[in-house]
Amino acid sequence: MNHDDKYSIAPPLENNVYAEFYQLRKNASTMTASTIEWFRNHLKMLLDEMRYQTRNNTLSVLSIGSGEGDIDIEIIQAILPHLNPQWTHLKYDALEPNSIHRKRFVERLSENSFDDHISVSVHNTSFGMADEFDSNESYDLVLLVQVLYYFKMPSQIIQRALAQTKLTGRVIIVHQSAIGIPEIQRQHMLSLKGDENEILTTEDIKKRLAQESGYFYRYHNVNAHLDVTECFNQSEVGLKILSFCMECDLRKVHNKKLTRLLQSMRNQAEMKDEGSVLYEPIGVFIINKDTTSSCVKNIGEDIDPVDDYRQLAQRFDWQQVFSSLYNGHLQKTPTTIRLLDVACGTGRWIQAFLYYVEPQISQLGKGEMVYDLLDNSESALLQA
């Protein structure tokens, strides 16, 4: 084998370097911080949705592919203030087959003290095979955070996750969008490593969910970016980050291929005074286990922790209001329900109305909803 043949295809990442490369890539990105912030801002809303539908005093969570537990610890801490009055206990099961990541998770747990009513278990297993995690338990929340890449059949994993979710529960998927690294992967991964097996984006997940009937989900866009300064400097750290992004060891690939890869990245990166960054937003899916129709609601990034709008929309009997308002007219002939939202702002109330209220009104059986928005701020109207 000559020199060119030897380096024509980069070898896969070996287990002894995977954890190190993963950590460097994670440190260079805001994905983890953005994910943690999203959970902090939305967990109360999710728990409020479920607490009125369950009588169990234990909130149960299953985290699939938990990694080092940095996100999980933050999720646990964000849950605790919102357990009462419905739940008195928290049961948190984490699955992590990587021994290095699992060890670090256990170390993090020892660094954090939880009360006796909090039970956290880290299992040496994965979720990919039926015999690797045999549990008859159903969970209130099942988390798939940046982990679907590692399964050969993501659709089956989502189905299994839903199967282990309580009727009133939610499956939450956090995943990379099609923007950023996936764009680079589609251009170069086949040439670099000989396959594109690890390419999976939120768009792929949406297509898979569209093929399944009966699942209601909400989708949130969350901003994130990757610092690629070290990659452009072609430092040792930068090469390891690139290797993790391309799912192969680029230290052993031909320089010509590496040069083409870096050029593609430069074409998409934003050059700043403090360095170079690549925009790589993530998406969050909230999938309801129980639903009567298959529909999708896209919700933009929401960093405002105040959820008064959603609470109001959720708890009021809107079906009764509209039924009495129209004196049964909707039951007789098709009609259009026209709503005017005065001082709509950026559309937070409309988002809440679409999710909680419109499904109630649709049960009346006829007509369509038409929304008119009024606000004196042009920028707010554009966001709405």
Describe this structure in words.
It contains 16 helices and 13 strands. By secondary structure, the chain is of the alpha/beta class. It folds into 2 domains: 286 residues, Vaccinia Virus protein VP39 (Rossmann fold, 3-Layer(aba) Sandwich), CATH 3.40.50; 78 residues, no CATH class. The strands form 3 sheets. An 8-stranded mixed beta sheet has the order 3-2-1-4-5-10-6-11. Strands 7-9-8 form a 3-stranded antiparallel beta sheet. Strand 12, helix 15 and strand 13 form a beta-alpha-beta unit. Helix 2 crosses helix 10, helix 7 packs antiparallel against helix 11 and helix 12 runs parallel beside helix 15. The longest helix has 21 residues.
Strand content: 15-25%
The CATH homologous superfamily of the largest domain: Vaccinia Virus protein VP39
Distance between the termini: 61 Å
Cα radius of gyration in angstroms: 23 Å
Could you list some keywords that capture this structure?
384 residues; alpha/beta; Rossmann fold; 2 domains; three-stranded antiparallel beta sheet; 13 strands; globular; disordered N terminus
